[in-house]
């Protein structure tokens, strides 16, 4: 096991500090991923229909701009490993491709049981600023063109118009769903939520269910 180390990475108008990393993969457009560091349990909030597509391998990337509660710096793919936290808010048929079947339901209510069934590992992440390049990734996700365009054009909370974040992910299925009650702390228009400790030995029976990571061209 390599010895942890620290690094400062200079980015426009700010510095990113990465601690206890054993290896770094630097993608272009100043997006950074680090490997070998065990992070605390974190969930990435995504529509249930998209979680299902990621689980089946019909989607292999995540595209995100961020929500109004992301904080001053805006959204970033700040975690290499994370659980998929399914949400129902905003999930309407028009926001995904027409071939997808969407069940519109009210958002989680406090006390309802949430089932975490899949875990993601990000191979790389970057920021796209060329719309043609954004469109080139259309075969790899189920978001509608209009949804992606709306995110690309949106500006606010540290995020500029004419850009969108993308991450290539490998998805694994938990042998047994991790079920826990929904709490108010999981709410809000934000992408990342801190979770409690998952069940013991949950990693041991992970089953990879998405295609092999492809190279970025």
Task: Kindly describe this structure.
The chain has 217 residues and is mostly beta strands. The chain has one domain (24-208). It is 11% helix and 37% strand. It contains three helices and eleven strands, in the order E-E-E-E-E-H-E-E-E-H-H-E-E-E. The protein has helices at 48-56, 131-136, 145-153; strands spanning 5-11, 14-21, 23-27, 31-35, 42-47, 61-64, 81-87, 113-128, 164-181, 192-194, 207-208. Strands 5, 6, 7, 8, 9, 10 and 11 form a seven-stranded mixed beta sheet that branches. Strands 1-2 form a two-stranded antiparallel sheet. It is globular and about 45 Å long. The relative contact order is 0.23.
Task: Write out key terms for the chains shown.
single chain, 217 residues, mainly beta, seven-stranded mixed beta sheet, two-stranded antiparallel sheet, disordered N terminus
Write the layout of secondary structure elements.
Layout: E1 5-11, E2 14-21, E3 23-27, E4 31-35, E5 42-47, H1 48-56, E6 61-64, E7 81-87, E8 113-128, H2 131-136, H3 145-153, E9 164-181, E10 192-194, E11 207-208
Q: Strand percentage, roughly? A: 35-45%
Shape, please? globular
Return the domain count.
Answer: 1
Helix proportion range: 10-25%
Distance between the termini: 31 Å
Number of helices: 3
Estimated structural class: mainly beta
Mean pLDDT: 78
The number of strands is 11
Largest sheet: 7 strands, mixed
Q: Residue ranges: pLDDT <50 for 5 or more in a row? A: 1-38, 212-217
Backbone CA Rg? 17 Å
**H and E string:** EEEEEHEEEHHEEE
Short description:
With 217 residues, the protein is mainly β.
